[in-house]
């Protein structure tokens, strides 16, 4: 078939499970390449390749099944120590995973899988043939005179040499089909399968790997020492195509007592294995999204009921029914919070969903650029809304590629600077104050501030007068302007003036912030701060004239109420700018109503100040009236803001929230106001 029907639920499950297995194989291969190799890792990869082979074969995806079968054979030889792992073996394994990924993409788009796997299959077979030939030459030491003795004499000689009473000895005769092409290769596959079952004592013809098809004939005889029985051998060989007949003769029988013990152990293990039970189920994402939308509506109605409850309580404070209503509302708030938290958790995914994709990219890119990179991942279990995860892949990819290309030096350059030859690139994540902080840090050359100034002036991104007054943090922010690049040469990795501006744009759409810190010769760190979810947050509602605004709680540092004397003492002008004296430092102050050109009356005798933070920077907002704190449901406005769009170039608003009474609250974008 090599194509699937998306209307079938089993097909969706097949795509999901296959993708998980392909990604997991890639992770295990990367672990092997970094020296984390053991029998369990190899067995895990083998089992997953075997699973992909079986499921894709059952679904009729023949090329995927064939490629995973070839990979399975290679892995089988690795785990049985018939092949040693080297760079050539690793490259072929990674190439196989790449093709399986491409096949999966085609299936996901509803396309036919018609990828050419012949070259890759030949490469796998070449390695297997080469290693197996070497192994057989060591295992099957045949005397020259044996070619001239009868079969009976040969059997006696083999039996006399083998003193192991714990193994059966079989003579396995295989008649190949006349249509077989490359009989030596087919014989390799047969002997390889039998090697997996025990020790190959002798093969006839002994030099089958060097015989042409014309001189080969159709018969291959193998003497095998194994603890398996005839049925096991027959099943193993019957899985191989182009075999006409199989004759299996037992020449010697093993000690049966050990077999009974083995059977008892197997039965005991099997009985234990039946006790495990699944504790999770797969749920369609659309159902989770629908449930989440219902919770959003519930939050809006809950806040409306709370507002009505407060108003009614003022009028009917002593009424018994009113007391019962307040009690019910309190319980409703508790249930609502629990429901919201539970449903939110179903939308949360660990960052491993994207973090695990990067080791392979780093491996390939570092080899391409001839850089030795130690890539470290920390905190990938940190959870965040899955909708944010989906949008994070491109920004993090840009940053990591830039870190390797621009940040880290070559081993030779690092050695000259007395650094260790292997550069460090670290990707980490953690929860912090109701948000998720992601950091990308390298120990490379750092960013040259003077070079940034020069490039910004050269490209006309800023004037000479403006650049003089900029602090280090502001200069580094110039790197996020469209068209900015410090690369001297254009390459397929970087230097096209596209990248960090895309990063900034994508992070801003997620209501997040991004900052850079750097030291020449020591390295660079990108810090991204994101909300846990784009949907529901706690916010402070404020009033400016007839308009309602909300400020996310995670942006607020402190709320201050000033009286007449304090206003004069703490708010004044310096160097032409209004500032607010806060905790022994001066920070910019903005009247929110003026910023949004909203008519509002601010009392001269009292004033509300909200101190907000964006990364290392602080700012004070003068606000008209405080409504209170409540949970709000965020609705994005990104589709309606911009050139030739409904609301035009609105600056300082990241979204809107529908309040319980049906009115709107504009969500203040603190980062945008600071940058402006």
Rounded mean pLDDT is: 80
Quickly give the structural class. alpha+beta
Q: Tell me the number of helical segments per DSSP (H or I, 4 or more residues long).
A: 23
Q: How can the largest sheet be summarized? A: 6 strands, mixed
Radius of gyration: 35 Å
CATH class of the largest domain: Alpha Beta
Report the count of strand segments.
22
Strand order of the main beta sheet, please?
14-18-19-17-16-15
Helix content: 40-55%
Task: Name the poorly predicted regions.
Answer: 141-148, 257-278
- Write down the overall geometry: elongated
Can you put this structure into words, describing what you see?
With 676 residues, the chain is an alpha+beta fold. The protein folds into 5 domains: 9-136, Four Helix Bundle (Hemerythrin (Met), subunit A) (Up-down Bundle), CATH 1.20.120; 143-267, Alpha-Beta Plaits; 286-349; 351-531, Histidine kinase-like ATPase, C-terminal domain (Heat Shock Protein 90); 536-675, Beta Barrel (OB fold (Dihydrolipoamide Acetyltransferase, E2P)), CATH 2.40.50. The protein has a 6-stranded mixed β-sheet. It has a 5-stranded mixed β-sheet with strand order 6-8-9-11-10. Strands 12-13-22-21-20 form a 5-stranded mixed barrel. A hairpin with a 2-residue loop joins strand 16 and strand 17. The chain is elongated.
Brief digest:
Helix content is 46%, strand content 24%. It has 676 residues and is an alpha+beta fold.
């Amino acid at each position: 078939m090599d194509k699937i029907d998306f209307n079938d639920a089993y097909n969706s499950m097949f795509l999901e499970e296959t993708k998980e297995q392909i990604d997991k194989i890639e992770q295990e291969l990367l672990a092997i390449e970094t020296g984390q190799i053991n029998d369990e890792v190899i067995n895990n990869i083998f089992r997953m390749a075997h699973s992909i082979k079986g499921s894709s074969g059952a679904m009729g995806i023949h090329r995927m099944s064939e490629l995973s079968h070839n990979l399975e054979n290679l892995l089988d030889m690795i785990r049985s120590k018939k092949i040693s792992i080297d760079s050539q073996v690793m490259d072929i394994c990674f190439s196989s995973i790449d093709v399986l990924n491409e096949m999966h993409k085609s299936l996901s788009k509803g396309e036919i899988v018609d990828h050419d796997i012949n070259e890759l299959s030949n490469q796998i077979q070449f390695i297997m043939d080469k290693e197996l030939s070497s192994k057989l030459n060591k295992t099957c030491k045949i005397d020259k005179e044996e070619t001239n003795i009868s079969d009976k004499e040969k059997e006696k000689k083999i039996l006399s040499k083998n003193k192991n009473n714990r193994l059966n000895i079989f003579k396995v005769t295989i008649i190949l089909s006349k249509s077989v092409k490359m009989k030596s290769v087919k014989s390799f596959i047969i002997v390889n399968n039998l090697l997996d079952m025990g020790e190959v004592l002798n093969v006839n013809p002994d030099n089958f790997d060097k015989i042409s098809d014309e001189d080969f004939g159709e018969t291959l005889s193998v003497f095998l020492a194994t603890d398996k029985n005839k049925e096991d051998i027959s099943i193993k060989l019957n899985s191989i195509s182009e075999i006409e007949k199989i004759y299996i003769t037992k020449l010697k029988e093993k000690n049966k007592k050990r077999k009974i013990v083995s059977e008892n152990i197997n039965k005991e293990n099997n009985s234990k294995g039946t006790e495990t039970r699944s504790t999770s189920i797969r749920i369609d994402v659309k159902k989770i999204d629908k449930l989440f939308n219902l919770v959003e509506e519930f939050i809006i109605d809950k806040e409306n009921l709370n507002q009505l409850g407060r108003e009614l309580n003022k009028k009917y404070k002593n009424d018994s029914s009113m007391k019962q209503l307040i009690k019910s509302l309190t319980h409703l708030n508790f249930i609502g919070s629990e429901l919201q938290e539970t449903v939110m958790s179903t939308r949360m995914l660990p960052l491993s969903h994207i973090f695990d994709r990067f080791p392979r990219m780093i491996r390939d890119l570092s080899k391409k650029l001839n850089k030795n990179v130690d890539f470290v991942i920390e905190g990938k279990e940190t959870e965040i809304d899955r909708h944010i995860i989906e949008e994070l892949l491109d920004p993090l990819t840009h940053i990591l590629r830039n870190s390797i290309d621009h940040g880290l030096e070559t081993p030779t350059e690092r050695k000259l600077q007395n650094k260790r030859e292997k550069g460090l690139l670290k990707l980490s994540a953690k929860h912090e104050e109701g948000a998720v902080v992601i950091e990308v840090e390298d120990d490379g050359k750092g960013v040259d501030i003077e070079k940034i100034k020069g490039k910004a002036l050269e490209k006309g991104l800023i004037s000479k007068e403006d650049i003089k007054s900029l602090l280090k943090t502001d200069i580094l922010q110039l790197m996020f302007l469209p068209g900015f690049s410090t690369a001297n040469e254009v390459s397929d990795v970087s230097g096209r003036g596209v990248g960090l501006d895309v990063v900034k744009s994508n992070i801003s759409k997620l209501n997040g912030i991004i900052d850079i810190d750097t030291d020449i010769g020591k390295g660079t760190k990108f810090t991204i701060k994101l909300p846990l979810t784009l949907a529901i947050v706690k916010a402070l509602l404020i009033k400016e004239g007839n308009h309602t605004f909300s400020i996310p709680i995670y942006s607020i540092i402190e709320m201050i109420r000033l009286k007449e004397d304090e206003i004069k003492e703490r708010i004044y002008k310096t160097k032409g700018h209004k500032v607010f004296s806060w905790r022994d430092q001066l920070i910019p102050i903005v009247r929110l109503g003026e910023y949004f050109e909203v008519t509002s009356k601010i009392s001269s005798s009292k004033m509300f100040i909200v101190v907000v933070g964006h990364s290392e920077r602080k700012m004070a907002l003068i606000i008209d009236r405080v409504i209170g704190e409540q949970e709000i449901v965020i609705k994005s406005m990104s589709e309606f803001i911009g050139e030739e769009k409904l609301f035009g170039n609105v600056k300082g608003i990241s979204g809107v929230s529908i309040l319980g009474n049906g009115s709107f609250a504009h969500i203040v974008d603190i980062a945008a106001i600071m940058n402006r």
